[in-house]
Amino acid sequence: MIPIILAIIITFFGVFPLFISLISKCFLIKIFNKNNVIVFGKKGTGKDLLFQYVINARHQKHFSNIKFNKNTQNICLKDLELSNNTYDNFISNNVYLEEKKEQFEGKDFYISDIGIMLPSQYDTKLYKSYPSFPIFYALSRHLYNSNVHCNTQNLNRVWKALREQADSYIKCIGVDSPFFLSLFGFLRINFIIYDKYESAEKSLLPLPYGFMNKFLNANAKQYYATNGDIKKCYVLINKKSIHYNTRAFHEVVFGFKFKKNSKYIFESLKTFFQKVAYRLRDFWDRFTSLFKRK
Prior knowledge:
about 45% helix, alpha/beta, globular, 8-stranded mixed beta sheet
C-alpha cells in the first residue's frame, strides 16, 4: 500500500508538473522562434528568468544587453538602428542603401529592462534619438531573419512605437518552488501569454472551457474571439542553469559588480526562514481547520 501511495505522490507532484512544463516549453519556444515578444511583470516575477529559460532551450547565439550564457554577445540599442533611413524615407519612397551587419544574420536580440531605456513618457525625445529603431523592430525578420524580444516592469512604460508592434506579450506572474520541486533544485516560472496588446494591457485571465457544457464553451469561444488567445502556463528551470547576473544594472550604475557580504547573507537567511515559518504556519492553520467543528 505504501509503495502505491508514494508512486501516486511522485507522479502528481513530480512527473505531472514536468509534463505540463514540457508542453508549455514547446508552445513558448514556438512563440519566440516566430515573433517579437514583450515580457512584462512586477519586480521579481521572473522576466529575466524567462529569458534565461528560453535562451537555454533554444541553444542559439544571440545578442543582449546583459550576459545570459556563453552564447551571449553584447549589444546596445544604438546598434539596432538603420543609420540612413527613417519613416520619412519609407513614406516618400526614398530609401537609402544600408551596410548590412552580417553578424546579426539569424540571431535574436534580448533587451532587458527596456522600459528604462525607451520609456513611453519620452516619446518625442526617443523619435529624435532612435528615429529608425521602430523600423528595425518591425522589419527584423526581413532584414536579418531575427526577432527582437524585450522585457519591462510595466507594459505601458515601453515606447508606444514598439509595444504596439509586438506580436506576442507575456505577463510573468511569479516564481515559486513547491517543496517537492525544490528538492530537485527546480524553480517554477508562472506566466500568461497574449497575442493581442489590448488584452495584455488589461491583464485578462484565460476563460476555461466547460466540460460537456455547451453554454460555457460558447462563452469561452466568444471570449477568445474578442480578446485573442490567452494561455496560462508554467515552465520549470533548474537553478544550476541560471547564469545571468540578477543585479546587472548595479555594475552599469556604480561601475562594479555587487558582492555579497556577511550582512547580506544574514538578511537573506532571515528572509528565507521567515518565509518557511509563514508557510508552515499557513499549512498548520489549514490542517487544524479540517478538524474544527462548524
